[in-house]
Write a structure and sequence with these properties.
The structure is a homohexamer of 226-residue chains. By secondary structure, chain A is an alpha+beta fold. Helices cover 13% and strands 27% of the residues of chain A. The first copy, chain A, is built from 4 helices and 11 strands; from the N terminus they run H-E-E-E-E-E-E-E-E-E-E-E-H-H-H. In chain A, the strands form 2 sheets. In chain A, strands 2-3-10-5-8 form a 5-stranded antiparallel sheet, with no helix packed on it. In chain A, strands 7-6-9-4-11 form a 5-stranded antiparallel sheet. In chain A, a hairpin with a 5-residue loop joins strand 6 and strand 7 (145-151). In chain A, helix 3 (203-210) crosses helix 4 (214-224). The first copy, chain A, is globular, with a radius of gyration of 19 Å. Chain A starts with a helix and ends with a helix. The relative contact order of chain A is 0.19. Chain B binds chain D through residues 31-34, 49-53, 121-122, 182-184, 186, and chain D through 34-39, 41, 44, 47, 49, 51, 53, 55-58, 98-99. Strand 8 of chain C pairs antiparallel with strand 1 (68-69) of chain D, so a sheet runs across the interface.
Chain lengths: 226, 226, 226, 226, 226, 226
């Protein structure tokens, strides 16, 4: 696959149109949003008034460009501890999605890369593998792991709110495109949330949670300190 | 692009894993479905009881394979009047989507191909162009056309229920992957609905609708008769 | 029926209280809106802030008159190409409907008049024929036409988002009153959307859609140019 | 108005197509139902399985007649204590409404008749007066009464779940047609619920509620005993 | 139970942390609200803009204290005609609940006290008896009374929108804690709504409703005049 | 507080009516469920047909006892690694909650006990502390920890889908009663899901997730093996 990405046909392909660096912000996710009450309501991200979702731009300022987004065309920068990058096309990045109840993201995974266990608090995820081969797993609330190796062209689904992960199992890069049934997708990434929050979760909570000594907790926290 | 599809790197790419023929059934689409009431409810497509959506398979028969689908990996057969093919990954094709409020489809367009004006009665569509370059347009209920040329890697959105079309504007094949915020996506394709329904719509309705003579209506009907 | 409308008992009847001209704006329709979060939220149609739906007037300015509307009492002007008139009592016309998830319209049809094929992007329609006799038909996404001749006093239903039409089949005027499960009902009227949009849909799209020559498309467009 | 109903033009009008007696069952009402997951799901009222709403008839048994109803054409029998009659066109009476989130009713009021204070537990009501002149009032949860005299052709709205009443204020019969944003509309009629339930509400509850003696309670109960 | 409340261990118990007087405002209640579109949206109760629900405080002003409320800790003042007190922890009292679709209340009942028949226009209620023993009853829209004596530790449920009451059946005080599936819970209390509204409901409506003489109506009204 | 639980007045109090052992099943949780379509639909837990939620018992078999539950009256058995017990009153335990969109649970915490980090995939939680003093914390998807010490009588809220924990900070037992805006509440408990699932999550996933050696992962897994 690395071969493909470097060969002559690559320029025709969108994945590497540019190697723009994407800030690693773990925040894909979604839900069944309130129904739209008009044809569209393009988000005014700078409104002084904040509501459930976003206020709309005046209709007179809406044009065709509000319904197209270029953010998914750029490969994310995977030079980080997880060797992965999440690029969100949610309402914050693509204001035309406001009130429409859908969003997308792309996940780039370097060889060996992982999108560690996380959940989307308010939506289901359906994804397609575009490049490579990944292990996708989710755990039900009854503690049953459901997992599949998903190859390019195949589709997977993660039920709303369940913890799941994506691991690159191939020899080259991997790329997935996922959709979420909420415009305001976010992710709760387990290691960041438990060991890298501000302020930090008390060690007493974490030692009791994982049944380990405080030194183990401190060691993990040191890797996720921000 | 045709070059890419025929060259040596193609086998790595999912689009042409096989050139299986897909029956041209115009039926992508969607909505904000009722929320799920359990982790999952894999559809029992053969249940004797029919409900809003589908009944569930017993949990004891659910396994990891219920959450993966291979239908999007196959290129559709575009040998038809519209030179396009729609392949649905909705709950009928991917039962694991049941109750989860999301689905996908792929649209293959031969050079010059079109997915003619249609609407999804119950959902918004968000799509990504994977190969090629298409003209995507929708018309608001105020009769304003919003359209964009969308290139590989870029994303578009079609608000719920609005009439829209996709036209291949490139020199080679085009491929889009779209997501819908309803598991049971269907399409109402304008020419088929108006001129190819069973039974047919009375000519009086159509002549008055389009302000044309009956001979024009009969001529169009002859092309969509089934 | 024309007799009834002109006879002495007519003054008791609301249909012709006045022959006010209603601008022909094709825009009935709707959906399952977000639930209300307070007893009522009368729309402030002039708010500087736009949201999904409308902001509310201050409670101190709400009085009984906010919950009554007179717009449906006026017969519409059917002097137009379709010999029909649509009068909406949606939230724009009746601000008290805001957040309440319901609206109405009236459709007046002169003899031979039609409300041409259209869809309501976000709601189901249930209607009652008040005067006359109409042919009501809708086409499912499987291209099956369901139609009935509906007489005064009888009720029909059009599932959400499906294309449908109403044709006056009687010798006199016809009148229907419909309800929609969304306060912000609008209509996407097929001939206007396809042939009368601003900007216009490219002829290439329409010739491929209807499999006709460009001259036919130009001819139809000339009748819907605005 | 009684004159109109008996005069020569009446046969053209649906209200008295037949003077069929309608059993006085106080049960109009509504809500924002779960969204439909298919084009339609005509209720199977005799299914052995009961679900939220109703299971669907097989698609092969659905035809055009499932989408029309004749129940609203018949005038109700107002020979009862309230001099009024409610005729419901909800999913039980019109199975084609199932999953579609809308229903209707008609209220016939003899001179002096009343539809006493009641609420619709799960929906908003929007109504049109077809004949006569009525006083429509509802009380907010803050105990404010909003009321209007509504004449033929005019429209009113009752926010979801609020207690309201309709009183015939004219000299003749009155008729209203209302719509509800739920297919399974029902009514909770205050006098019947408080004084005519089975089993009866303990007198202690009612004397404390209305701050009256037990004899007053017993007297009222005697009028609503069933 | 009164003993418990007066004994030495009582100070450890929250019920009487303070005997603050709570204004008797009958307004608990609820519904299935629109889904949240972000992690949280703490209500800005003083916003100049009013929407369905409340606008949000800026995220920069949100802190941990927004997610805790002390209002339920205070016993209500039951020195009133019903010998009961309702203390609401809805979004107006606890702004952190905004957009989250849940709220609570506490009902204090002196010996013999009653929370008279009322309904929550937009939500279901689930409650737990904390102290004492109460009779909880609701009446279905088919006029069937369902009632139970509910003791400390036991739970009851009242379906959305149905009329219900709570009567203290024990010898001491009673306390219930209820939850509602709407952040903006309110109550429509039957005696207050029918006999204490502003303006008042016409006597004609009430005499016809309860089939009593005007003097009985006037007598009841005199007790609920505000 | 331990004093209260052991003293003479305790028998009057529900918390220790009996020290029944409750199986430690971590599964509280919730969401905004589809609206009810009838007054009630008491779950038939043994139906051969499975749907989104549960089918209903026939109305003829429903009686008052369907709307009361005794499960919350029993203290849970906290003799386990977390020194805590969760007792659910969701639709599985209290079938009358079916379709009504609400449920409850009780959490018993021995001194030092914890309900470890978990999320409710489909609902918001609002809770009241009945006995004791607990630390309640949740982490937003932006990795911000919001936490409060919550004392008896006080209320807290946890936004839908976010990871949170409850730690007993007092010297005696603690008890909380929580409500959820979904009838089918479940919990995804982080340590159980990540280290105790069946089958287990591959060590490669967990070492990369927490940036620790495989021996640490194996050690934690050994404590959660089932």
């Amino acid at each position: 696959m690395a071969t493909l990405l470097n060969n002559a046909s690559a320029p025709y392909f969108f994945l590497i149109l540019s190697l723009t660096t994407i800030i690693l912000s773990f925040s894909p996710s979604h839900s069944s949003d309130p129904d739209p009450l008009q044809d569209f309501c393009v988000a005014d991200l700078n409104s002084a008034i904040l509501v459930n979702g976003f206020p709309c731009k005046p209709a007179s300022k809406v044009n065709s460009k509000d319904f197209i987004s270029y953010v998914l065309a750029k490969e994310g920068n995977t030079s980080n501890v997880f060797k992965s990058a999440i690029t969100n096309a949610n309402v914050q990045a693509f204001p035309g999605l406001n009130t429409l109840g859908i969003s997308m993201n792309r996940v780039d995974l370097a060889p060996g890369g992982i999108f560690p266990p996380h959940s989307h608090p308010r939506s289901t995820e359906a994804g397609v593998v575009i490049i490579g081969e990944v292990l996708v797993g989710f755990v039900s609330s009854s503690n049953v792991l459901y997992s599949n190796v998903v190859k390019a062209g195949d589709m997977f689904v993660i039920p709303r709110g369940l913890v799941h992960f994506i691991l690159n199992k191939g020899h080259g890069k991997a790329l997935t495109i996922s959709a979420f049934n909420s415009q305001g997708q976010v992710s709760s990434v387990v290691p960041n949330i438990l060991f890298g929050s501000k302020p930090t979760i008390p060690n007493e909570v974490l030692t009791k949670t994982f049944q380990v000594s405080e030194s183990v907790i401190k060691s993990i926290k040191s890797k996720f300190a921000s």
